[in-house]
Amino acid sequence: MQKTRLKRKSEYEWHIEPFGDMRVPGILFATEGLIEDMDDKVYEQVTNVAKLPGIQKASFAMPDAHWGYGFPIGGVAAFDPKEGGVISAGGVGFDISCGVRTLHTGLTRDDIEKVKEPLAHELSRKIPAGVGSRGRIHLDPQEMDDMLKGGAEWAVSRGYGTKQDLQRTEENGCMSGADPACVSVQAKKRQKNEMGTLGSGNHYLEIQEVVAVYDEHAADVFGISPGDIVLSIHCGSRGLGHQIGTEFLKSMVMTASSHGIKLPDRELACAPIHSEIGRQYLGAMRAGMNCAMANRQIITHLVRETFADILPRAELDLLYDVSHNTCKLEKHEIDGVTKSVFVHRKGATRSFGPGSPEIPEAYRSVGQPVLIGGTMGTASYILCGTERTMGLAFGSAVHGAGRRMSRRKASKQWKGRSVVDELYQRGIVIRSPSMRGVAEEAPGAYKDVSEVVDVADEAGLARKVARVEPIVCVKG
Q1: Total-model pTM
Q2: Which of 162, 179, 272, 393 is deepest in the core (most CB within 10 A)?
Q3: In the 8-state DSSP scheme, what is residue 366?
Q4: Residue 81 in contact with residue 88, Cβ under 8 Å?
């Protein structure tokens, strides 16, 4: 991206002053190097989002931002329905409520090293991964609707986990306002056999070691120390979420003009929040969020079963579960006035500060855990929200490293087997049904997650708590 088109406000904040049909400025959080690495499409998409009706404050891009569908991945925008605000399927993304769930294990690296290979094998056997992967759970129409309505609460009621899990899950594991009737038969059909599966792409299940702690007090509140072993799950709403996104994007394109909406890009298809199609999308999208939370809850149960067979003394308690492809109705102060706005976070994690009633009581003294995934060969991070976060980008932070190279280009540059072998030499065991998928997700295809996280920390989007590194990774 050309820096000359941006106005630098601080070391980590860059502005695109409004021009043309822009209603608000664009604001990017990044170092000079990260700005230069962002493709020009990010600039275009940030400015296009700023043209949408009812947008508040600014169109934001996180340090991990890269080109997406309509909205940049790493994009954040809030809309006020009282000012003609819209909801956009492209502003949530195709993998609705994709997120990260991290669990304690009570184990050390020595415990894992002794059984690393068989543990990796059993996890990959028990938790299907890859395109079109099917699980052992098969939902009939009534159970499907119950799952879409109940989310992780439904999963726990069916024996997949505990009520304590719900207390450490965003929205307590169930997004209110979900309407299964707004989800198509085709979307439900695609999800019928996919519960308890990882999917493909950048999704993973990873056993990690805490290698550094930056904030001892927050780490103590979160229950993590150097040398601890944790387990993270990264996945979303699978085929159901993708189908919802596909269908509503088409519908929103077709009806935009009837609502007087001039789309700067067809991929930014949207609808007034209180329109019929807006209401339907909200009902379906919230059902998709529940699907994702139920899916991660089921996978958690399968992980616990696997550990019970191999490492029975493990204590797999949930640290937190947070999504990064969502749209939520939240209250935020804008220009000195508290407003209820619909916050789109696409490839951006909620990062609420201390005292927020939306986060578990046990964490309110330090802020919400913010879980940032890296790559199968690099670090991931645990951060926490801060008071400053709330005034920057509607309480939002980064969600991962962010791609710097397309999957197609990555698959030409790396061979999956070579990546697996190289990581094995570093003590990292990879299990995946697709060597092409491994090549597409090679660590070199991503930005430097440590630089991205450092910017989030320095800019005030979230505060670093701990760094974790992979030991075992089951890839989609």
Answers
A1: 0.96
A2: 393
A3: T
A4: no
